[in-house]
């Protein structure tokens, strides 16, 4: 009895990641997605906030006066900073 050959796909090489600056600024965060130690309530005050349908596990991105937030409620928010109705 002959053994049946098992064909495995050839893995593709992973793309290389070059460290550098992104053209899209984002808020600083650590590798664990927590704010830096200077971003505490004692260091300042809340000037703007927005409630989402679930928690957020990544830093928001700000570009052209719009805040972009991905939430665990499966919604990607794009909120203008000037939106005074959201406090």
Give the percentage of residues in beta strands. Answer: 5-15%
How would you characterize the largest beta sheet? 3 strands, antiparallel
Major sheet: order of its strands? Answer: 1-2-3
Shape label: elongated
What is the H/E string? EEE
Query: Residue ranges: pLDDT <50 for 5 or more in a row?
Result: none
Helix content, binned percent: under 10%
Which structural category fits the helices and strands?
mainly beta
Average pLDDT metric: 69
What's the tally of helices? 0
* Radius of gyration based on Cα positions: 21 Å
Cα end-to-end separation: 74 Å
How many strand segments?
3
Which helices and strands, and how do they pair?
Layout: E1 61-63, E2 66-70, E3 76-80
Antiparallel strand pairs: 1-2, 2-3
Structural description of this entry:
- It is a single chain.
- The protein is mainly beta.
- The chain has a domain at 55-87.
- The chain contains no helices and three strands.
- Strands 1-2-3 form a three-stranded antiparallel sheet, with no helix packed on it.
- The N and C termini lie far apart (74 Å).
- The model has no long low-confidence stretch (mean pLDDT 69).
Search tags:
mainly beta, three-stranded antiparallel beta sheet, 15% strand, 87 residues, single chain
Question: How would you sum up this structure in a few lines?
Answer:
The chain is an all-beta fold.
């Amino acid at each position: 009895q002959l053994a049946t050959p098992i064909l495995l796909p050839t893995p593709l090489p992973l793309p290389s990641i070059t460290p550098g600056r992104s053209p899209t600024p984002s808020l600083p965060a650590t590798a664990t997605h927590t704010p830096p130690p200077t971003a505490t309530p004692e260091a300042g005050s809340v000037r703007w906030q927005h409630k989402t349908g679930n928690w957020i596990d990544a830093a928001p991105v700000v570009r052209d006066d719009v805040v972009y937030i991905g939430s665990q409620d499966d919604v990607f928010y794009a909120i203008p900073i000037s939106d005074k109705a959201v406090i």
